[in-house]
Fold this sequence. Notes:
- The N and C termini lie far apart (46 Å).
- The protein is α/β, with parallel strands linked by helices.
- Strand 5 (148-152), helix 7 (164-173) and strand 6 (178-182) form a beta-alpha-beta unit.
- It contains twelve helices and twelve strands.
- It binds 4'-deoxy-4'-aminopyridoxal-5'-phosphate.
- The site of 4'-deoxy-4'-aminopyridoxal-5'-phosphate has 12 residues, from helix 4.
- Keywords: Amino-acid biosynthesis, Aminotransferase, Histidine biosynthesis, Pyridoxal phosphate, Transferase.
Amino acid sequence: MSQYWSPAVRELTPYVPGEQPREQLVKLNTNENPYPPAPGVGEALHDYAIDHLRLYPDPTSAALRGSLAETFQVASSQVFVGNGSDEVLALAFQAFFRHGAPLDVPSITYSFYPVYANLYGVELRKHPLNKQWEVDIDALTAETSRSGVIFANPNAPTGHAHSLEVIESLLTRVTDRVVLVDEAYVDFGAESAVALIDRYPNLLVTGTFSKSRSLAGLRLGYAVGSEELIDGLLRVKDSFNSYPVDSLASLVGIAALKDAEHFEACREHVITTRERTRQRLEALGFEVLPSKANFVLAQHPDYEGAQIFAGLRERGILVRHFNTPELNNFLRITIGTDDEMDSLIEALEVICG
Ligand code: PMP
């Protein structure tokens, strides 16, 4: 605590990102992609004219938004870009969720939402997952007065994804406030709600280049929604930082979007490895939640999550353990290369053998 901090800053509980270790570890803790970005990314970096760094980037990111619009078959005016989807989410909290009523959110979901809620003074109304560890759509929509609804699909850290039909049933029930669907992991097997934005002007879909495009270090995220919603985000962005996306990031993002083949191959590889990993974990006695993301959430009936986490760490393998009552016994394991997952399974055979 410091006397210099504004009172609200004293009340913050900042998000704690997963560890980025200095030593060489098998790193399965922050849902990064184990495969390199598209080859065109290297070429774009190589061809980048250093002299461009003298100039400010395009504040509207027109070229990148155009590429995303083409990818999603929407208009550029329906696309917003930011410095990682974390920033896009933060701007969305400011733009849409400050109506003086609670924001409906699953009790288990991306743990940055409560942090933004605290930062922007948004009250959360948390709804437990159902018995299958799925986002409970009926509970989320049970009340009539709210500032909005937010959840991740696939959800984090469970990996469960609802179908478009279920998302649409939510949208028919919540029409007066923004419904934000965070699709950070959608490319690993779920259906994108971008297909619904033309019919639901209150639907905002966010996404990221960090996972399926292997560009977590670049910091590039986006939102797709009605022009009305994108304008709301632009108003907040232009009251905060005119240039959240630098010229290098724009160029690299565009190069990544161009390579559909690389994108498909990487995500298919991750999906195949995920299913193989799930089977092998189950053979070791783990309960593994079905996942449509690039991670699985797993627990063992005979060993505590913290104990397995520590055993893996000793063997140079880093996974994610959440110290909360509901998730305490689970481990969230990012899907790495086949070799990395072999190392994981070998270590678990010793720890849980
Ligand atoms: N949403 C979810 C559900 C996530 O897990 C993450 C990654 N931690 C993000 C958004 C943010 O990703 P980024 O800022 O890298 O785009």
